[in-house]
Amino acid sequence: xxxxxxxxxxxxxxxxxxxxxxxxxxxxxxxxxxxxxxxxxxxxxxxxxxxxxxxxxxxxxxxxxxxxxxxxxxxxxxxxxxxxxxxxxxxxxxxxxxxxxxxxxxxxxxxxxxxxxxxxxxxxxxxxxxxxxxxxxxxxxxxxxxxxxxxxxxxxxxx
Length: 159
What we know:
By secondary structure, this protein is α+β, with helices and mostly antiparallel strands. It has helices at about 5-10, 55-70, 115-120, 135, 145-150, and strands at about 15-25, 30-35, 45, 45-50, 80-90, 100-110, 130. It has one domain (about 5-150): Nucleoside Triphosphate Pyrophosphohydrolase, CATH 3.90.79.
């Protein structure tokens, strides 16, 4: 692991590869209101940066386990959705105003009723909400999140 100062230097010099996941249950999407930069207080999906030697699906699997305590054993359930070039004006690490640059490989997963129950149990005190896809499209959200929502693929409900 790098210190925040070391990682800040990295962010000044390279583009970070990230895998974030659109989590769907029926016609609802799970999103969180972020508590830190980049995009503090904005609604966003779950995931994080890739580690060396990971596949996209392994990164998605690890991120969902870390953030939502949901273990998706079958990595093939994560379906590639869209790739975005994200340049955020701020970041958590100093200097915050240097921002950060991410290459986001977004994936989608449809979850079962049982998996939703696990998420709901483990996230009851967080800034996380389920939104009907049609309702969230009408809200004031980041254009990048709107692109992700508009790219959602209709897939069979899992489980």
